[in-house]
Amino acid sequence: MNIEVILVNSFTVKGKGGNPAGVVLNADGLTDAQKLKIAQAVGYSETAFVSSDDDADFEVSFFTTTDEVDFCGHATLATFSTLYQKGILTAGTYTQRTKVGILSVTIEPSGKVIMAQQLPQTLACFSYHEISQVIGIESSVLQSTQLPIEVISTGLPDVIIPVPHGYLDLIKPNDELIAAFCKKHKVVGFHVFELCSAGSNLTASCRNFAPLFGISEESATGSSSGALACYLTEHLALGSEYIFEQGRAMGCTSIITASIESDNATVTSVKVGGFASIIETVMIPLI
């Protein structure tokens, strides 16, 4: 039996850049073991599997090449953009059941997909010294940002790490050190950012490292972008609308938008959006 997998670039800029994901429609009959084998054959950071659901419009599960993860932003974008581009869905708001709960997804007439995420949870805080030893930037340099290093989850727990402008592209990730740190502290990965200048249309440039899940570096990370937007809302007065650039160091620049709604300094809504482009369709043999 062959399984049809649609390959999609998410968070593209005019059809360029982005982060690739696999999308499998009509995945009701697949076991978790089969899904993992398909994801491994695809070889992307995540592959999404779309099934029917009694309460939500769809159930969507996400597999890396090593394991299932509870949520994936760029694979969600790939899924709903594909459903829209293939004429299965029209512009409107839908729901998906994920391992983190039922979340809404809105498809705009332009094809932009806006995904709701979980409300933020701040789970831990690390010292500059602890992180310095892992990413190879002196603790005094990290401290100069005057911003904390925190674990924030809007679906997946990521370490949000600010660095001064000019240091982001200098990072040479050590997969072994980062994976060991993430395993020890039960987090998915590192989301490192530098703020852009006041005159830029971008809020921040970002890099994401999740080698514990087989992802040395990712060119666009939706879940981490939601967490970063919540972080910036709490610690800096930057408004409620954010534009993030990611993937520059990989030669695969992606653009991710995020919006936050708050009530008396409490976040009440987290949404992340972007565009996606279908690359091609492949057939994966299922043995």
Short key terms for the protein model shown above:
single chain, 287 residues, alpha+beta, Diaminopimelate Epimerase, Chain A, domain 1, 40% strand
Quick gist of this model?
The protein has helices at 32-42, 73-85, 128-135, 139-143, 175-185, 222-235, and strands at 2-10, 19-24, 47-51, 58-63, 68-69, 92-98, 101-107, 113-116, 121-126, 149-153, 157-162, 189-195, 204-210, 215-218, 241-246, 254-263, 266-274, 276-285. The chain is α+β, with helices and mostly antiparallel strands. It has an 18-stranded mixed beta sheet that branches.
Text of the CATH class of the largest domain: Alpha Beta
Any idea what the radius of gyration is?
Answer: 18 Å
Distance between the termini: 7 Å
Choose one word for the global shape: globular
Spans of 5+ residues with little confidence (pLDDT < 50)? none
Tell me the domain tally.
2
- CATH third-level topology of the largest domain: Diaminopimelate Epimerase, Chain A, domain 1
Strand content: 35-45%
Characterize the biggest β-sheet.
18 strands, mixed
> What is the CATH architecture descriptor of the largest domain?
Roll
Number of helices: 6
Explain how this protein is built:
Helices cover 22% and strands 40% of the residues. With 287 residues, it is α+β, with helices and mostly antiparallel strands. It folds into two domains: 2-116 and 275-285, Roll (Diaminopimelate Epimerase, Chain A, domain 1); 121-274, Diaminopimelate Epimerase, Chain A, domain 1 (Roll), CATH 3.10.310.10. It has an 18-stranded mixed β-sheet that branches. The termini are close together. The model has no long low-confidence stretch (mean pLDDT 95).
